Amino acid sequence: MNLYEVVHRRRDTRAEFTGAEIPSDVLRRVLTAAHAAPSVGLSQPWDFVLVRDESIRRAFRDHVQAERTVFAAQLDQERAEVFSRIKVEGVMESSLGIVVTYDPDRGSPAVLGRHAIADAGLYSVCLAIQNLWLAATEEGLGVGWVSFYREDVLRRLLDIPTRVRPVAWLCVGPVRSLPDTPDLERHGWRNRLPLDDVLHHDRYGARPSR
Predict the structure, then answer these.
(1) 8 A C-beta contact, residue 43 and residue 106
(2) Which of 30, 101, 113, 117 has its CA 20 to 30 A from that of 56?
(3) CA–CA gap between residue 207 and residue 210 (Å, rounded)
(4) Which one, of 170, 166, 171, 206, lies nearest residue 46 by Cα?
């Protein structure tokens, strides 16, 4: 696949994992691609915690399921019905959990480029995650970003220092296939907006003349 094909082929994977082991050389390439991401002030504020321990993964999965229940209780009947069909995690089905963290002290005290935008370091971590995701897609792996969790719970589960923020638990592993349509579109939760709906010219809200 070329770059554009990888970008459009990438999926947030849940139910398609096979559980097969990721070859060590493949995992190394994917993590190297993540570590090659650009970062504000070359601070490289990310770390990658590779989680294989079944008891840790099960504890995290149970927490995610509890948070799913919390979210479902906030929905109206129609949305709740749609949500009931959507799988939100593949923690136990995937081969590996990769927790990506943000260390705001990395590169301190003077992080070039962060003095005016405090979140620039967090944005850098998100770029590393995107690199990881695209590299994994190129390698034939699936990735699922789990967001149904409380940061303090994950921090305690993995002994992450207080100053370090857990940004993402990524479920990673070989998959049977990647769906042609994202799950949230397939289940009718939401559709992708046309590009022209989010394009502005010179000022926010200014649309091109027809």
Answers:
(1) yes
(2) 30
(3) 9
(4) 166
Q: Report the percentage of the chain scoring pLDDT > 70.
A: 100
Q: Which residues 6+ apart lie within 8 Å of 151 measured at CB?
A: 165, 166
The answer, as to whether pTM is greater than 0.85, is: yes
| pLDDT tens by residue, 72-91 | 999 999 999 999 999 999 99
Residue 119, token pair as written in the block: 């979140």
CB 38 within 8 A of CB 112: no
Helix axes 120-138, 24-35, angle to 10 degrees: 150
Give residue-wise pLDDT tens across range 104-160.
999 988 899 999 999 999 999 999 999 999 999 999 999 999 999 999 999 999 999
3-state secondary structure of 68: helix
- Residue type at 98 in one-letter notation: I
Q: Give the contacts of 22 (CB within 8 A, at least 6 positions apart).
A: 95, 96, 141, 172, 173, 174
Say how many C-beta atoms besides its own lie within 10 A of residue 6's C-beta.
Answer: 15
Q: Which residue shows structure tokens 């993590």?
A: 31
What single-letter amino acid sits at 50? L
Max CA distance (Å), the chain = 59
Question: How far apart are the C-alpha atoms of 204 and 192, rounded to whole Å?
Answer: 20
